Amino acid sequence: MEKFKLSRAVESLEPSVTFEIDAKVKELQKKGVKVYNLNLGEPDFHTPDEVKTAAMEAIFRNETKYTAVQGTLELREAICGKFKRDNDLIYKPEEIIVSNGAKQALYLAVRTVCDVGDEIIILAPYWTSYPDIVRLAGGKPVIVRSEILRLLDVERVRKAITPKTKAIIVNSPNNPTGAVYNYHELFELGMVTCRHNILVISDEIYENFFYNSNNKPYSFASIDPGLRDRTLTINGVSKTYAMTGWRIGYCAGPEYIIKKMTSLQSHVSSSACSVSQAAAVKALLGDQALIREMVREFNMRKSFICGELLRAGIPHIQPEGAYYVFFRVEPKFNSIEFCRRMLDDFQVALNPGDTFGTPGWVRLSYTVGLDDIKEAMRRIKALWTSKEK
Ligand code: PLP
Predict the structure, then answer these.
(1) Residue 389: predicted pLDDT
(2) Which of 22, 103, 232, 276 to mutate to test the pocket of ligand 1 (most atoms within 8 A of CB)?
(3) What is the model's pLDDT at position 17?
(4) SS3 for 228?
(5) What distances in angstroms separate CA 142 from CA 73, 74, 148, 168, 178, one per listed residue?
(6) Where are the domains of the chain?
(7) How many of the other CB atoms lie within 10 Å of CB of 345?
(8) Average model confidence (pLDDT) for the chain?
(9) How far apart (Å, rounded) are the C-alpha atoms in residues 349 and 52?
(10) Nearest to 377 by CA among 388, 389, 362
(11) I need a surface site. Which of 24, 123, 163, 171 has the fewest CB within 10 A?
């Protein structure tokens, strides 16, 4: 039978390269091959026991039905508490929506504000899903690249603005560079968004992962009172509490936008998982020790990796946050070829910068133990130096 013609928007979508590489890694692992997996952005820590217990208790209380589409009131209140505690921002539960992961919250936000033909500015290097999310919403991704990758080049953003610009997506701490934009960069950007009446979608999923206490990540909406009502803040429990599989993300923003996002979600997925929502309440209100433990461990791994890259003369961005190191392999190697060889010949899974709109670079995720990192670095250096011989 002849194949049906599919929607143009979805037909043009490529699957997430990160998950494709992960599938290949799993295939190799199934064959018994030891793979050093520095590909996926998933903490190698476990969800805290008290969070798991809260989930089990919710099951036995029979909280196993649909919840309010917008999320349980208890969880939205806990999220409001988190914004007050961590970001000095006051939100009402009506200004919060809970989704199936930050990814869905992002999709809902973009789909709700972006009309066909609207332009959405995305800063490169960017998280791989942003441009596709914008395209799916009928919008046009406008990519703005800084001269120096770890900086936020507000002047270039300003130049990219047209009458069709609707919003800008900001991600700090950044995936893949690990950059943390400072107060001045964000304030300057904020002023530009005010002047041109642009919305800001601020993806703050890595806010707890920072390694320079002099450059603590700012929540964009907290930078200036004038920015709160033009900002949709995206966050979630996936990274902060090692809960990637629970699928709980959220968005805070003006009530009229959150209300429409809720209508959209009601037709897409209804509420997020009831049990996961109960677990997320415990994660947000309970002991925050896991965060400190993860940050301590990631900081140690990051210092080791950067030291090794430095000694090998591999150019890289010194990360201040998230859990990635972005290093440059060009002109010596093509980044896709480098990652292919690393996986096929050295059993090290990495992510080519092409996935993040930045060919020539490679992303390394330090979410595996130090012993594996040491061996992976030895192999990375082996391929790197093989071209010098
Ligand atoms: N935003 C960024 C920048 C990410 O790196 C990720 C996951 O890798 C997400 C959002 C998605 O988070 P979640 O697992 O909660 O959907």
Answers:
(1) 52
(2) 103
(3) 74
(4) helix
(5) 37, 38, 18, 9, 22
(6) 8-46+289-386, 51-285
(7) 12
(8) 95
(9) 30
(10) 362
(11) 163
* CA of 236, closest atom in ligand 1: 15
**Which residues have any ligand 1 atom within 6 Å of their CB?**
41, 101-103, 127, 171, 175, 203, 205, 236, 238, 244, 249
**Predicted local confidence at residue 382, as pLDDT:** 97
Distance CA 323, CA 104 (A): 22
Contacts of 100 (CB under 8 A, 6+ apart): 247, 248, 249, 269, 272, 273
Q: What's the whole-number mean pLDDT along residues 258-282?
A: 98
**For range 240-266, the mean pLDDT:** 98
* Cα–Cα nearest to 203, from 264, 140, 133, 144: 133
pTM here is 0.96
Among 186-190, 211-215, 268-272, 303-307, the least confident range? 211-215
pLDDT in tens, 335-378: 999 999 999 999 999 999 999 999 999 999 999 999 999 999 99
| Annotation: CATH topology of 8-46+289-386 | Aspartate Aminotransferase, domain 1 (3.90.1150)
Contact status, residue 77 vs residue 237, Cβ threshold 8 Å: no
Domain 51-285 class, CATH top level: alpha beta
Residues 6 or more apart in contact with residue 46 via CB below 8 angstroms: 242
357 C-alpha to ligand 1 centroid (Å): 17
Measured between alpha carbons, how far is 105 from 251 in angstroms, rounded to an integer? 6
Q: Do domains 8-46+289-386 and 51-285 have the same CATH topology?
A: no
Tokens of 321: 């946050």
